[in-house]
Specification:
- With about 300 residues, the protein is of the alpha/beta class.
- An 8-stranded parallel barrel has the order 3-4-7-8-9-10-15-16, surrounded by 6 helices. Strands 5-6-14-11 form a 4-stranded antiparallel beta sheet, with no helix packed on it. It has a two-stranded antiparallel ribbon with strand order 1-2.
- Strand 7, helix 2 and strand 8 form a beta-alpha-beta unit.
- It is globular, with a radius of gyration of 18 Å.
- Bound molecules: flavin mononucleotide.
- The site of flavin mononucleotide has 28 residues, from strand 6 and strand 14.
């Protein structure tokens, strides 16, 4: 077995480094830079039942640290994805994890059913988008609703189901337990925090939506704390994300309890960061004399 082979229940990745939904398109966009088949997994841009144009621009702003986005789940719709995008990207050799969103619990069920097809390795259920009016974050902040979405997706698919949690809650442990109790196979966290920026010249919020999802290096301590908090209270694997910029960040998430990690906003800074992290984890394991990278998962709890 390779040093970096990653097992998340029934989902197997060639290494524990994935790229976060919304920051890597469908993977096609990055093929001109490098062979994305080297990645453990690609979490594709959030997909919905119907095509969505998303919110009005300006919908992305760089702050003194990190970015605020209010894209509003712009995407061509699940049918277009299945017919026109999936056939190409499933050949790349990286596991394709499709990120799904819905305005109702039934939407999530339909999405799960449609995506239970060859080429899709797992579903990542976004119950935490702060940038859409219907559904979105409402599902991610109420334990019962998060549980109900999980149960609906599980009922409609045999694929591994990853529940993506929102950090915008008082107690992340309750959310994690609710999705686990309702059948989630894996938990990914965190989605974005809620932030805003104001232009002092126009005296108006920069993002047309006024507020947006805040991500990048400054949210790492929050994300790391949440991974650390849920690790002892759930029995399913965790994919950690939030501000990961380099190997050290990735290792911290693993030591907090993440079996795999996801690189998000960092892809906008340097698309090679995920590959550098794969090499970096490999080197760290060799330097430390580890038999397998999993020896460090949750080690910070000992
Ligand atoms: C521009 C942008 C678009 C995003 N779109 C999605 C999305 O469609 N679905 C989703 O679950 N998360 C989405 N996210 C959240 C990221 O997947 C990730 O959870 C978050 O950015 C934290 O990681 P980071 O700090 O490394 O960026 C988006 C983030 C950004 C910056």
């Amino acid at each position: 077995m390779s040093l970096l082979q990653c097992k998340l229940g029934t989902l197997s990745l060639k290494n524990p480094v994935t790229v976060a939904s919304g920051t890597f398109g469908s993977g096609k966009e990055f093929m001109p830079f490098y062979d994305v088949g080297q990645l453990g997994g690609i979490m594709v841009k959030g997909t919905t039942l119907e095509k969505r144009l998303g919110n009005k621009p300006q919908r992305l702003v760089e702050t003194c640290g990190g970015v605020i986005n209010a894209i509003g789940l712009a995407n061509p719709g699940v049918d277009y994805f299945i017919t026109n995008i999936l056939p190409e990207i499933k050949e790349y050799g990286s596991e394709i994890i499709v990120n799904i969103s819905g305005s109702s619990i039934e939407d999530y069920g339909h999405m799960a059913e449609k995506l239970s097809i060859e080429g899709v390795s797992a579903l990542e259920v976004n119950i935490s988008c702060p940038n859409v009016k219907d559904g979105g974050i409402a599902f991610g902040t109420c334990p019962d609703m998060a549980g109900a979405v999980t149960a609906m997706v599980k009922k409609n698919t045999d694929k591994p189901v990853i529940l993506k949690l929102s950090p915008n809650v008082t107690d992340i442990k309750i959310m994690a337990q609710s999705v686990e109790d309702n059948g989630a196979d894996i938990i990914s966290l965190i989605n974005t925090l809620i932030g805003m920026a104001i232009d002092v010249k126009t005296k108006k919020p920069i993002i047309t939506n006024v507020v947006g999802g805040y991500s990048g290096p400054p949210i790492k301590p929050v994300a790391l704390r949440m991974v650390y908090e849920i690790y002892p209270v759930v029995n399913i694997p965790i994919i950690g994300m939030g501000g990961i910029m380099n190997t050290k960040d990735a290792l911290e998430f693993m030591m907090a309890g993440a079996t795999a990690i996801s690189v998000g906003a960092a892809n906008f800074v340097d698309p090679f960061i995920p590959l550098n992290i794969i090499d970096g984890i490999n080197k760290y394991c060799k330097d430390e004399g580890l038999f397998h990278y999993s020896e460090i998962i949750g080690i910070a709890h000992q």
